[in-house]
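User: tokens in, sequence out, please.
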């Protein structure tokens, strides 16, 4: 008997994606110029509720572009959570600045505002809070800390499409925000990203830098050293089709998470607490397992995989990685614990009820029997 395979997160491309891609091919508009780029930017801006949305080639360059546009560079420090995807820290290094790693809040798993306050020095130029796995960071407290010190707040909302703080979408609470459209994200373009800002001057700066520094009025005249960070019309065509179903995708993610939480209510697992007044987009359903260390968690992941269920560990704390260990400073016990016990389960919008039940039954059985 063949083993069922349930992947972590695969895209649903059953809408108008193929039609719009075919339109691109038929029109020969396949590169960075073409009508779908503007359509995608407008659809995204309208959905999150902001004036300026700039589509770029991926989520990492979205962060890099923001740092460049803000003039962050050598001699500057940027505070980042250690528990995040590596791109958050790497973007800081790209501009020659120093990432300063801080710990996570044990309840929400997001960057700890008190740790931010303790880490600020006269070299701090920016803070990059990450909305981990779709849960909103405490932007009210983070902004209060940063505003009185004149520190920029750059929201890494790569995983937070559909996350709200009050009535305002994640990514719109700071100086600027970034999103990712990698294949496993709620909305995908294969690779792709978006920069958002309320500031017209910053938006103009971002557009100049992402298009090789080319003058917006004089073609092939370049005003600054820029970068080729443009998204293609092909990617934007997929994104445009995806945005037509974004509300359905988010609702499906939240439904899947609700089932998991209901089924695991009596199991030795813990989900992140959700800050009051926020809406969790549930990009991935993630949890901590009690009485488990990194080795046993990794064996559980391997056992699940052997049974056809793809899962993944939490991010490995960046301050423990070889290229950043010299900058790690003091121990960060919360994120180290989270990184060793956390696990994420399949969260594709394509999951059917039978798949979800199989994951729940299998995961529960393994936790009870410790057969891994």
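Assistant: Sequence out:
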């Amino acid at each position: 008997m063949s083993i069922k395979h349930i992947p972590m997160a695969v895209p649903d491309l059953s809408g108008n994606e193929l039609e719009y891609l075919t339109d691109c091919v038929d029109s020969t508009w396949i590169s960075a110029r073409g009508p779908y780029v503007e359509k995608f930017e407008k659809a995204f801006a309208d959905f999150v509720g902001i004036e300026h949305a700039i589509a770029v080639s991926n989520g990492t360059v979205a962060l890099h572009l923001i740092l460049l546009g803000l003039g962050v560079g050598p001699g500057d420090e940027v505070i980042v959570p250690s528990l995040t995807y590596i791109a958050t820290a790497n973007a800081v290094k790209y501009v020659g600045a120093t990432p300063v790693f801080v710990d996570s809040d044990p309840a929400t798993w997001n960057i700890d505002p008190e740790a931010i306050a303790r880490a600020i020095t006269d070299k701090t130029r920016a803070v990059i809070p990450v909305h981990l796995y779709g849960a909103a960071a405490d932007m009210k407290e983070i902004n209060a800390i940063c505003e009185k010190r004149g520190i920029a707040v750059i929201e890494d909302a790569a995983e937070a499409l559909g996350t709200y703080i009050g009535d305002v979408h994640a990514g719109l609470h700071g100086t600027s925000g970034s999103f990712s459209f990698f294949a496993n994200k709620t909305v995908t373009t294969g690779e792709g990203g978006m920069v958002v800002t309320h500031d017209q001057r910053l938006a103009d700066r971002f557009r100049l830098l992402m298009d090789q520094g080319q003058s917006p009025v004089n073609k092939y005249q370049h005003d600054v050293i820029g970068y080729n960070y443009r998204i293609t019309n092909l990617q934007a065509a997929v994104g445009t089709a995806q945005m037509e179903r974004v509300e359905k995708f988010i609702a499906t993610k939240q439904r899947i998470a609700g089932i998991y939480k209901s089924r695991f209510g009596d199991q030795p697992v813990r989900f992140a607490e959700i800050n009051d007044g926020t809406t969790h987009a549930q990009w991935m359903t993630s949890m901590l397992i009690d009485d488990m260390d990194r080795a046993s968690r990794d064996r559980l992941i391997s056992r699940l995989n052997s049974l056809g269920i793809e899962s993944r560990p939490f991010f490995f704390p960046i301050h423990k990685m070889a290229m950043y260990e010299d900058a790690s400073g003091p121990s960060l016990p919360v994120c180290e614990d989270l990184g060793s016990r956390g696990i994420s389960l399949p969260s594709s919008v394509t999951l059917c009820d039978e798949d979800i039940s199989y994951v729940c039954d299998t995961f529960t059985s393994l936790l009870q029997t410790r057969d891994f």
